[in-house]
Design goal:
Chain A is of the alpha/beta class and 119 residues long. Chain A contains 3 helices and 4 strands; from the N terminus they run αββαβαβ. Chain A has a domain of 59 residues. The chains are: A alpha/beta (119), B alpha/beta (486).
């Protein structure tokens, strides 16, 4: 009886193995190439340390002329002046990316800035 | 975002304001600019175009966040952001019980990674890409340019991979490459097409003998379905822009409604059988026997998208001329009187046009004595307004534009390109005529459609705030499977 059971177990094991091998043999592997463009990552930079207080500071507000932002900045200017009486608000307008010349001007004239653009 | 980073790099700290729903876009742009921890403040609402009273709550709700972001010391993580790593782009292996299931799984994986367009894709296996590359003699490693939004490098091989996915044939590949060369040209403003909220789309016009060799449609249904070359050339460009530029709707592609012809763009060829004029590319300085691709940015909606100028039966050239001039002149008030240097008003930016002229009408126009060049110049002249007819508001607007252009201030699209400033200075005098368009080249005339009767359509574009270029023609070269374009 024990001998018969052993043979039965061996038979079942073989059957399972054959089924597994069969299923593996039936697998299909599709290798496909990556369609994304390679990117050269730019060097990573940290933002500039913050000013500790806006009191007495020159705060630049930059926009690119998109309708609505001017009025929004009017309210921002009003709220900043209300809270920081000694702060000076400087308004700037130019392209979506302001470019080197205007960036240099703003960096020279402002202690800190808020940039709001749209396209 | 790039402007904010530009000032930050000079040592002045600041913040970038982000409209609600654009947080991913802003973060993505900060990473692209190399300053991943740049501080942004989200405005809880949409700032443009709302009534003034609606802006106050937005400003009040966000002012404390702005102050905080301007003054709170940087955290150690912000002060030392992790270096950006180059993304590995290895081949992808998909395993399944059957080929059908593997293809299905491939489509799932690609779409989940944002590498598709939502329609089923053809798997770009190495063998199939190799087959695609048999269509060109150019090296697979040749770099043709970088694709915004993230400046992914466009090589011939990468374009071929996307062409396979689109279902294109190898003989189309040189056409697809030329289209990508046009879009990645240094003068072409692809960023506006890819990223703007303005739903812009593209015309991809194939001209010259190669168009017939690859069986492109130029007659009934030329903008429609049923033609493999038209459909898959456009789709290959669509997928190349998505995958090489790493763009995705709602992440860094912000077209509000999406764009018309989103899957294939407007891809077609001229009806050279019935056109009375040499191919379109000849006016761009190429030879008649050349084969070329012209890419051109056009709008989708709001009067810029595909719209009918008029329906003409027979060779009624005079009527068509009247209606073309009337259509272009309809922008006069916005372009002249509504121009204000301090406001970036899209309506005040002079349009450029792609006019789709049915062949019979084109023959009628030729019968009136027009060549493609003289017709273009005629329309430009007739849409120029005599100085004596200009209102004081219009003169003020034109003067302001000339002044801003000379100073080089504002956005590029608010200015007259340097070479054209003297034309406007000369025009704004007694006896002069001020053009509504910047240059005659802003009128592109394309003969296409069923030979008889038909309607005249226009596609327009008001240009981007970044660069002026929105129309580029490139020679098709390197073809190996067609007689043309070699």
């Amino acid at each position: 009886m024990q001998k018969r059971m052993n043979w039965l177990l061996i038979g079942v094991s073989l059957l399972v193995t054959l089924c597994w091998v069969g299923s593996v043999a039936a697998q299909v592997t599709l290798e496909v190439l990556n369609p994304r463009g390679e990117i050269e990552p730019p060097p990573t930079l940290a933002p500039t340390p913050r000013v500790t207080d806006l009191g007495g500071k020159k705060i630049g507000l930059y926009w690119n002329g998109k309708v609505g932002t001017d009025v929004f900045f009017d309210v921002v200017e009003e709220l900043l002046k209300k809270k920081f009486h000694t702060a000076t608000i400087l308004r700037y307008q130019g392209a979506f990316d302001l470019g080197d010349t205007l960036a240099a001007k703003m960096a020279k004239e402002c202690d800190t800035f808020i940039y709001g653009v749209g396209d | 975002m790039s402007g904010t980073i530009r000032i930050e790099k000079l040592g002045t700290p600041g913040i970038f304001l982000v409209a609600k729903g654009f947080e991913h876009d802003a973060q993505s742009a900060a990473i692209d600019g190399g300053m991943p921890t740049l501080r942004s403040v989200m405005i809880p609402g949409y700032v443009w175009g709302e009534p003034v009273e609606k802006k106050r709550p937005h400003a009040e709700a966000s002012i404390e966040n702005m102050i905080n972001a301007l003054t709170r010391p940087l955290t150690p993580e912000e002060s030392k952001p992790k270096p950006l790593l180059k993304e590995a782009l290895p081949p992808v292996k998909i395993t399944a019980a059957t080929y059908e299931l593997a293809v299905e799984e491939f489509n799932r994986v690609f779409l989940e990674n944002r590498w598709g367009d939502g329609l089923p894709l053809v798997p770009p296996t190495p063998d199939r890409v190799k087959w695609m590359l048999t269509g060109t003699s150019r090296s697979p490693n040749e770099v043709i340019g970088k694709v915004v939004v993230k400046n992914g490098i466009a090589t011939i091989e990468k374009i071929a991979i996307n062409a396979v996915m689109a279902g294109a044939k190898p003989e189309y590949l040189p056409v697809i490459i030329a289209a990508m060369e046009g879009l990645t040209d240094k003068n072409y403003d692809l960023l506006h097409v890819q990223a703007s909220m303005g739903d812009f789309t593209l015309v991809i016009l194939v001209t010259g003998p190669i168009a017939k060799e690859i069986n492109m449609n130029y007659e009934i249904g030329f903008l429609g379905e049923g033609w493999r070359s038209n459909a898959t050339i456009g789709r290959a460009v669509r997928l190349s822009l998505t995958n090489l530029g790493h763009m995705w709707p709602g992440v860094n592609a912000m077209a509000r409604m999406g764009r018309q012809a989103a899957y294939t763009f407007y891809t077609f060829t001229e009806n050279q059988d019935f056109s009375p004029w040499p191919p379109h590319h000849v006016i761009q300085g190429f030879k008649p026997e050349d084969s070329c691709v012209t890419v051109s940015t056009v709008g989708s909606y709001y009067g810029y998208g595909l719209s009918m100028i008029g329906s003409f039966q027979g060779e009624t050239g005079e009527l068509a001329l009247r209606d073309i001039v009337k259509t272009i002149l309809s922008s006069r008030d916005a372009v002249f009187a509504q121009y204000k240097p301090e406001v970036l008003n899209p309506g005040a930016i002079p349009n450029k046009y792609v006019l789709l002229i049915p062949p019979e009408l084109a023959s009628g126009l030729k019968r009136l004595g027009f060549t493609r060049e003289s017709l273009r110049d005629y329309i430009y002249d007739k849409t120029s307004v005599p100085y004596e007819e200009l209102s004081p508001e219009e003169i003020k607007g034109i003067q302001a534009k000339i002044k801003l252009s000379i100073a080089g201030e504002g956005s590029p699209s608010q200015r007259i390109p340097p070479g054209r400033i003297p034309v406007f200075q000369e025009a704004l005098k007694p006896g002069g005529k001020v053009p509504v368009l910047i240059t005659p080249e802003d009128i592109q005339l394309v003969v296409v459609g069923y030979p008889t009767g038909g309607s005249l359509f226009a596609l327009a574009y008001h240009r981007a705030p970044y660069k002026w270029g929105a129309h580029e023609t490139k020679l098709i070269r390197g073809a190996t499977l067609t007689k043309a374009g070699r």
